[in-house]
Amino acid sequence: MTDPSRGLSWRERARRVREGESALANEAVEEPLAALEDLFATILLRSFDAMVLCTREGEYLEVSDSFCTLTGYARHELLGQTSVTLSLVDPEGVRRRMEAEVDQRISAVNDNVIVRKDGTPRMVEFTQQFLDSDGLTLVIVRDVTERRMREQELERLSREDSLTGALNRRGFAAQVDALLASARTERRTVHLVVVDVDGLKGINDELGHAFGDTALVEVAGALHGAYGVDAVVGRLGGDEFAVAAPAGTATDVERATAELRAALAKVAIGPAGATRGLSVSVGLTSAVDGMGTLERLLAAADAGQYVEKRGRQSASADD
């Protein structure tokens, strides 16, 4: 005899058993179906990953213990609610995503930030699996806060000079390239300054590398102070820094450079009784309307800096 329920989903088979529409309406079938439902409930409730069974509209029908732990809500506080009514996530973003994914019948991995009951945010990654045509949805949520924080820290370290806190060459190049692209669109001028610390080798040789490191830190701080919070400051390597100023005129940049020199002259590097101030050699160039590559701009500014340094060295020799 052909099984009339062959090919039906377990949900439809269960419905037919309840309504007595199938020859399978007997204990031999009811027990496996009940066991399957119990197994599903156990997986849902005890899963290490946070899991939610919800309607098309996002109403929670069942939640796992892990989801309760993640959100800070008790199970009875969650059932019948949605992520929007509980203010777990941004409502507009949820609406757009749910509409798009239900209409297209796809399952996707999404990133979001949820706000726990105590108000603390957690970064999560979740997958939605649509179980039937009525929009019954299984949502699997994974807390990725610590992982994302580690990734962000690694990304920061890959772009930042560990000694001075300024951007390293890679980080500086990435930000200035973006700045130039924006300036081309807005027809805005970007000024580039190359700064070389005078006499750093002498400080290292005569006073020790610890004082040389202190000098570099002082220069980085003075660059931020002189050129402003909008300026991009990077350490290109050794004793060389660069600054990209996204606003102001060449006169403004020259004024900031004068402030830099004055600030560094007041710095005391070295042991008590043998301190010295700092000086820098500077080269300046401008990318009108953002035109030009970073490499060419650096070369032009570096040439100006080299001329100034040679002039200072010649004057010192004459003295």
Summarize this structure briefly.
Helix 8 packs antiparallel against helix 9 and helix 9 (209-227) packs antiparallel against helix 10 (250-265).
Explain the overall architecture.
Residues 36-92 form the PAS domain. Residues 188-319 form the GGDEF domain. It comes from Nocardioides humilatus. This is Diguanylate cyclase. InterPro entries: Biofilm_reg_signaling (IPR052155), GGDEF_dom (IPR000160), Nucleotide_cyclase (IPR029787), PAS (IPR000014), PAS-like_dom_sf (IPR035965), Rev_trsase/Diguanyl_cyclase (IPR043128). This protein is α+β, with helices and mostly antiparallel strands and 319 residues long. It folds into two domains: 47-148, PAS domain (Beta-Lactamase), CATH 3.30.450.20; 160-318, Alpha-Beta Plaits, CATH 3.30.70. Helices cover 49% and strands 19% of the residues. Strand 1 (50-54) and strand 2 form a beta hairpin. Helix 8 (200-207) packs antiparallel against helix 9 (209-227) and helix 9 (209-227) packs antiparallel against helix 10. The protein is elongated, with a radius of gyration of 32 Å.
